[in-house]
Amino acid sequence: MTQPLAVAVLGASGRMGSEAVRAIEAAADLHLVAALGRKDPLEELVAAGAAVVVDLTVPDSTEQNVAFAVEHGMHAVVGTTGWDSERLGRLQDLLALNPEVGVLIAPNFALGSVLATAFAARAAKYFESVEVIELHHPNKVDAPSGTAERTAVLIAEARAEAGLAASPDATRTSRDGARGCDVDGVRVHSVRLRGLVAHQEVLFGGVGEQLTIRHDSFHRESFMPGVLLGVREVGSHPGLTVGLDGYLDLQA
User: Fold this and answer.
1) Same domain as 230, residue 211
2) Is 14 annotated as contributing to ligand binding?
3) Which among 13, 223, 185, 21 has a CA at the least distance from the CA of 107?
4) Mean confidence (pLDDT) of the chain
5) Are residue 93 and residue 131 in the same domain, yes or no?
6) Do the domain assignments include residue 252?
7) What's the CATH number where 205 sits?
8) In terms of domains, do 230 and 210 share one?
9) What range does the domain containing 12 cover?
10) Were 12 and a residue from 17, 105, 182, 188 both cysteine, which residue would form a disulfide, CB within 3.0 to 4.6 Å?
11) Residues of the chain by 3-state class (helix, strand, coil), percent to 5
């Protein structure tokens, strides 16, 4: 019988972390060997024999956490934001020295959200106009969300490959922030409202028609199938993978 995969969770007392702990404990093929809080020493990961580390902490500590895991031969599944190009570059350099280790950095673990972003990127070349609206709970610390930013980047890449011009916009005067932020030419609007969890709409406009691609997460349980998928697959994908779509079969 195959031994359960040894998994540790960082940020185990947080909203996402506590859900991940429950999901891993309920999975017959996984074994939770450590659940660390913010002040717990990372050396406990080594002592526990973790093979995969799930990082659901905060932007200030995630790079250090993942570097520790990689340097000790542990795969990492990361849901923490704050991974800009500079941080990703340093991580890729570290992974080059540890070529058998895999790291997944996923802006969103909800499978429906990942699919919605993929569908939006696929549709992008067919419409003249596009804007993204992301809606989250008021305790979220970053805006726009990592999911919205990744969605906008993929849309912009698809539009550039298709040779599309910028979305038409005759605005000449506006209050600061009225038109959202600009992510590679795609406007992204952030809403923070009590009662929400995680929601996103991508609005496409053409002559006489509109396409809306929307995803809603009503509870953080919706992220757990993606977390578990990442944990099970990360060891088979050495190097850096950004986005859970890298583990899904999304070929046309």
Assistant:
1) no
2) yes
3) 223
4) 95
5) no
6) no
7) 3.30.360.10
8) no
9) 5-105+221-247
10) 17
11) 40, 25, 35
In terms of domains, do 171 and 74 share one?
no
On whether both 11 and 46 belong to a single domain, the answer is: yes
Beta-bridge partner residues of 31 = 6
83: which 2 tokens?
Answer: 């991974």
**Count of residues making up the chain:** 252
H or E element that contains 242: strand 239-242
User: Residue 252 has what pLDDT?
Assistant: 56
Catalytic site residues? 136, 140
Residues 63 and 87 in one domain: yes
- pTM of the prediction? 0.85
pLDDT computed for residue 38 by the predictor: 83
Rounded CA gap, 14 and 19, in Å?
A: 8
Give per-residue pLDDT as tens, 99-121.
999 999 998 999 999 999 999 99
The answer on whether 106 is annotated among ligand-binding residues is yes
> Using CA atoms, how far apart are residues 55 and 39, in angstroms rounded to an integer?
14
> What count of other Cβ atoms lies within 10 Å of the Cβ of residue 94?
17
- Please tell me whether 125 is known to bind a ligand: no
**Which amino acid is residue 219, in one-letter code?**
H
